[in-house]
């Protein structure tokens, strides 16, 4: 009898185990009123195989990207691949999770299985489960196929991100950067955000993270920047959470080290300079 992935060990430099002891797995299945969703392999392949075009290169040229060997990058990549492995086991190693050295709140994805999260987003989340919720939401966008060609958008294009809906009036007055026609990137809409939230809840449950972390994070952001959409989104998440079991949540030593590193680097006067400029 095969065991299903429904527990999480600490995210660190090692590959995160995805298999829970059978008694715990059986307990979670009994507790959950609704069977875990089955993610179609074609959705995984579509998300990974859509070309990102020039988007990745443009982002790298506009923002400083953390080196893949950086502890923060390694932590985020390990967590992201753990999430994907539990829904797309055949292709999880081909997805990319990139950390941007930017204290603004940023979390977005481009086609081809590439997810970006900023230092500012990492500083804002308070638990590992909240960070997992942000990454799962972006993975959800890709699995749902929420991408369009930039030239399909009549009034120009700018990247939307997980946090932008809480700062709409200020955020939408400024384009983050223009994307060339060959890129496939997200287009914001309330319906697509909700579809990504639904995907995220299932991804969190399958990966052993508490699905309620998404609600906690959205509520905290909405308290700071209330809006009609935020209230609607919270209501929808609450309704769906009745179908999910609550899972324990804790912060690992590696997560606390990540928070400390970002806090210390963010307070440095040379934070926005590239590493080679500091030599």
From TrEMBL:
Q: What family is reported?
A: Belongs to the peptidase M48 family.
Does Zinc show up as a keyword for this record? yes
The cofactor required is: Zn(2+)
Q: How does the cofactor bind to this protein, according to its record?
A: Binds 1 zinc ion per subunit.
- Report the domain of life of the source organism: Bacteria
Q: Could you state one GO cellular component term attached to this entry?
A: membrane
One MF term in GO for this entry? metal ion binding
Alphabetical UniProt keywords: Hydrolase, Metal-binding, Metalloprotease, Protease, Zinc
InterPro entries given in the database record: Mito/Outer_Membr_Metalloprot (IPR051156), Peptidase_M48 (IPR001915)
Instruction: Tell me the protein's name.
Output: Peptidase M48 domain-containing protein
Question: Peptidase M48 domain: which residues?
Answer: 75-239
What Pfam families does the record point to?
Peptidase_M48 (PF01435)
Which is a GO BP term held by this UniProt record? Answer: proteolysis involved in protein catabolic process
